[in-house]
Amino acid sequence: MYLLVAATDLELEPVRKALNGSRSAEFLLSGIGPVDATFALTRYLSLHYQISAVINFGVAGAYLHTGLGLLDMCVARKEILADLGICFSDRIEPFAMDALSVSREFDLQNELLLETRKILEVENIPVSDGTFLTVNCVTGTTMRGDHLQRTNQAICENMEGAALARVCQGFGIDFLELRCVSNMVEDRNPSKWQLKEACTTAGYAVAKVVKGLSGAEFSF
Prior knowledge:
Layout: E1 2-6, H1 9-18, E2 25-29, H2 34-47, E3 53-63, E4 73-81, E5 85-87, E6 92-94, H3 97-100, E7 105-107, H4 111-122, E8 127-134, H5 142-152, E9 154-158, H6 161-171, E10 174-185, H7 195-214
Parallel strand pairs: 1-2, 1-3, 3-10, 4-8, 8-9
Antiparallel strand pairs: 3-9, 4-7, 4-10, 5-6
């Protein structure tokens, strides 16, 4: 059984409709940000033991100079808690992980990722893979975005992925993260965003992945 996790109803609804009646998937609204996401998933997994993997999906902000554009699909090979550390006026420095025993980076390269890439290729859905960053505050300036991208060699940012990855690590459950680019990480300008379109695109891709993983038949 796959647990499909999204932060908002806007992100969750397209895939819920696409997989209506599926016995292979359950759905969880996590709320926005790492704290609510951690609480929601920990509570759910503590009460439901049939979950074999967690799939997180939704929208993301793509960093400039990565080759990504609006409505591109991305899959995470690694998740990083990007603003866990020391904040200066022009940069964020991570804590020394060895000295403080801080879990900041999560490797997501597993069999589930490999199978997902194969399914998306068969379905002719282009996808980029790379490092995702989880932030407590979405980036509102080009300067901060460029710093985060350059420091972490990342392709996009979100607000839940690393927290969910940490919970899955603790429960020993595979984790997959798929997101669609709704905006570029630049000086904040919501008039350029494509939130609804990105939610629809992400939902369609995730539904195809679940169908491929489960071997079930759905109507699209």
